[in-house]
Each structure stands twice: as structure tokens, then as C-alpha cells.
Amino acid sequence: MRRLALAAALAMPLLLSGCGLFGEKDEARKPMELADFDAAVGVDRLWRTSVGKGLGKSSSGLRPTFGEGLIWAADHRGRVFGVDPQDGDTVRRFDLDMSLSAGPSIYDDRMLLGTLDGQLLFVDTASGSILRRVQLSSEILAAPLLSDGMIVVRCIDGRVFGLDADTGRRQWVYDRSVPLLTLRGNSPPVIRGGQVFIGHDDGSVTALGLEDGNLLWEQRVGTPEGRTQLDRLADIDGPMIIVGLDLYSASQRGRMASVALDSGRLLWVKEVGSDSGLSVSRTRLVLSDTGDRVWLLDRRSGSTEWTNEQLLRRGVTRPVLHGNYVAVADQEGYIHWLDEDTGNFVARERASKEPPMAAPLVVDGTLYLLDIDGRLTAWRLSGAS
Length: 385
Fold this sequence. Notes:
Layout: E1 4-6, E2 14-16, H1 18-22, E3 43-50, E4 61-62, E5 65-67, E6 70-74, E7 79-83, E8 90-95, E9 100-107, E10 110-115, E11 119-124, E12 130-135, E13 145-147, E14 150-154, E15 159-164, E16 170-175, E17 181-183, E18 190-192, E19 195-199, E20 204-209, E21 215-220, E22 241-243, E23 246-251, E24 255-260, E25 266-270, E26 278-281, E27 284-288, E28 294-298, E29 304-308, E30 320-322, E31 325-329, E32 334-339, E33 345-350, E34 361-363, E35 366-370, E36 375-381
Parallel strand pairs: 4-9
Antiparallel strand pairs: 1-2, 1-17, 3-36, 5-6, 6-7, 7-8, 9-10, 10-11, 11-12, 13-14, 14-15, 15-16, 18-19, 19-20, 20-21, 22-23, 23-24, 24-25, 26-27, 27-28, 28-29, 30-31, 31-32, 32-33, 34-35, 35-36
């Protein structure tokens, strides 16, 4: 279960375990048993390596990323690794000795990281030296984003900051209240055409001016409804996607939508909820819902092409596209590959006995998966180029 945060107006979040709320012995919450199938695709593990100590005991926004020809990953203790994607050898290693919570984000020779105490770190990717640190209002749980000379950073207290990319000076701040009960996490900002798009914990999406942080429009995607605070969870926590002039977003409580970038007008709405976000392949969207069903949709209309319900309650990640297949990892460390056209299983491998830290990362036909203990594995489809 995703962790929950009780956020008072001026206090830092108090964490509650989702499993504790629902009861660990609830038989209905047991993961679905994996069904046997005849593998139709070969998958090779290329290498396996360790990149630090992973998440430790806390949830965070740390995830692997690609930049400067390396796979980058960081752990909660402040260690950062740059790994050769071909053989898994560690090319760079830095020890920042700080409690990291988000990133890394790589921009040429600069790395951006967020910390548990709300610092944004500017780090030199060659030497590992901290070039600058900027103190913000609270913990950073979404990877910082740089575009057009502006760095956009979200904090857990609902504030979004625009900082000068060269000096780190604050140019603007957008402040939004956070619901009493939210999932612990933040959807990463998305930037396009001089606008910043933010998915909020109350289920709404806002567009801000990148230069000044002014509110341009707001649209409701998730609708907080129900008798209790738990029923009214509507967080947008996973990545949003922009394709052309459309933005795609999913909320935790049963709703996703396509929104026009210029006006915020709803283009279509579908009653499917997700807290892990969306991935896109040409004219298709793929996501896993809050019950761990995997969906493939036509992104132009929201119509369902297929749904796979064989991974229910297995705590699956956001699905990603790997060649002509949909790949998704579960909380027992299995990676599942599904046929993009039919949704049928074509391959399965166990990367680890621990849950994944984040969704798989696909770069140049190779899939990388990092678990919460810091084990990074690389996988390639047999015969793939």
C-alpha cells in the first residue's frame, strides 16, 4: 500500500502505513497468485549491480534516470552512482552525506537533487561537488525540473518554486493548500511552451506561467467525494504526459482525463484511477489502476483496447513500453511483459525479492529496474537490437 500523509496546515506530514489502516490480515488484500503461461518472448538479464542502500525505511521520490551516457541512481543516505549502461560498472560515485528524497535530474554537467529537509542541491556530475544548495519550505518528493533557465521544484507542503537556474534565486512561488489526508508523494511538474503543469493532491491540474508563476488555468481531474477523508483521496501523484497539444493525467480516486494545454478544457474523461501515472506509445496510453489492473487505452478518445486483471493486489508499478511490449514490475520483484496488442503475458522474470523503487526505466531497448535495497538490474528482449 502507498503510505499516507496527514498534513496539518502548517505542520510537516505525519506518516501512516496504509497496511495498518486496512489491516494486515485482510484476506481480500492478498496478492493474486501468478498464473502459468507459455513464454512467447525471450528475456536476458545483462547484468546486476548495487547502487547504495536504496530507500531505507522511508518512501521517497528517488528513481533511476539516464543522462550524460550513464544510468544515475541515488540512495537515501546521499550516495550517488553513475553506471555504465552496457556492463553495469560504476563510472562515477559521490557521497553527499545528506538524506536525499528526490532525483537525480541530469542536465548536461549539472545534477539536481532534493532532500528530506527541503534543500535543493546543485551538484557537478563530473566531480560530485555541491555547487549550490537552496533551502526551500519542506521535503522535496518530486524530481526537480529545469527548462528555459528556470528550475521548478515542488515541496510536500503544496508550494511550487521557480528558481533562476544560474543563481538559484527564487523568482516566484505558487502556494496551494494540501488536503488533510493525502498519499505520500508528488507528481513531477511538466513544462511545455513556457507553462508549468502541476497535478495536485486535491485532484486538480493547474497551469502556471514559467516566467512568473501566475495561474493561467485550473481543471479538476479527480473529485474528492465520500464520507471520510480516506474516501476523499484524489491525489495526482504519478507522472502526467504531454503529447502534442494534450495533457493526460490520472488521479488516485477513480478518474483520468485528457486536457487541452492552452485552456484546460476537458477533452475526455474516463473512470479509471491510478496513483502511479501514465506512459504513452504513439496513439496509446498505458497505466495500472489502484487495484493493479493494467490498461491500454486509445489516447485520442480514452476508449479501452484491453485490460489485464491477472496482477490484482500485487502492488504493480507504472507500466512502461519496452519494444512492442508493456512491462510492469510488482512488489515481489517480478517483471511482467505483456503483448501491446492483446494484453496477454509473453514473459516473466524475477529481478529481486524486494519491491521496486520506481517504475522500470527503458533506454535504447534495455530495461533497468532498481529495487528498494539498491539493486539495479538490466534486461533486454532476446534478439532485440
